[in-house]
Amino acid sequence: MDIRSYGEEELTEIAEIFGEKSFRGKQLFDWIHGKQAVSFDEMSNLPAGFREKLKETYPISTLKIVDKQVAKSRDTAKYLFALPDGNVIESVWMKYHHGNSVCISSQIGCRMGCTFCASTLMGLERSLTAGEMLSQIYEIQRETGERVSNVIVMGMGEPLDNYDNLVRFIRLISSDKGICISQRNITVSTCGLTERIRDLMKEHFQITLAISLHAPNDEIRKQTMPVAKKHSIEEIFQVCREYFEVTGRRITFEYSMIRGVNDREEHAKELARRCKGQNCHINLIPLNEVKERNCLRSEDSDIQRFKIILEKNRINVTIRREMGSDIDAACGQLRKKFLSRTGKN
Ligand code: SAH
Description:
Blueprint: H1 8-17, H2 23-34, H3 48-57, E1 64-70, E2 76-82, E3 88-96, E4 99-103, E5 107-109, E6 124-127, H4 130-144, E7 150-153, H5 163-173, E8 186-190, H6 194-201, E9 208-212, H7 218-224, H8 233-247, E10 251-257, H9 265-275, E11 280-286, H10 300-312, E12 316-319, H11 333-341
Parallel strand pairs: 4-7, 7-8, 8-9, 9-10, 10-11, 11-12
Antiparallel strand pairs: 1-2, 2-3, 3-4, 5-6
The structure holds S-adenosyl-L-homocysteine.
């Protein structure tokens, strides 16, 4: 495993295994996560022999920027990073008045198969390590010279299909000895793997959980999301109620609006009926059309009508502000283009 994936206790064990005093573990953690060192050579207060041994044993999961697209508005940039094994992943940087957000990938590709999404077109290549998830943020902070205050795990991949690494990542990114991003500023988005949501609530994190709902009923959900054949909306709502009871954190439902599929008046009414009494917030996302998919984006007027119906029913609802739609900022689009261009697909 790459060294960035380890917590302080594990680094202390590693130091001890190499015959070093246990405080070296603390120093190592500070170099890796406090100072975000990119090589062992920088770690000047560690004995040279120890540094050599570490170098031989552990890779540091640094990333190389392959491509960077900046939106005309200058407030969004999309990065295509190469991993040491040659795979490429995407991350998005967004500048808001209240701080900078980074949207990271949790897997290379995805196996969930949603019909409107570009990330899943070529299936799952592999999951990312916790270090590789962290590296996306460390690299963007370094490149922009600005502090990241919000993290969204909404890039390529299904984070709960990479559960152990995700939990490790959340602990490391929110550690007060690392870059210390408040858990309240971390959002994890899932297509609704209910068993894993139950595991996650037991961690008692203060993160925001976002669920990709995208339909008012199971029939419509099954048309676009294969995972709906396994978990019904009712089952998801039940686990969300438990999640809220245990963590006190309100759930966000994401609803990507696809023309003629889930954006009609009756869909809004059905959704409002089902969400009554559910402590939630609904985020309407205008679909990012993906060339390989034949899903169309809803008309703006239909999105507005949908929102008004939900509001009339006292459901908390917002329309996601669109950033970066001129730079292929939809999940998986940049990687897909890169792979086609380089002849890998
Ligand atoms: N696997 C996670 C994270 C995926 S991406 C999940 O399913 O939640 C984050 C959100 O973007 C999800 O709600 C996903 O369904 C949505 N999404 C994917 N492709 C999209 C597209 N082309 N347009 C709009 N939303 C999209």
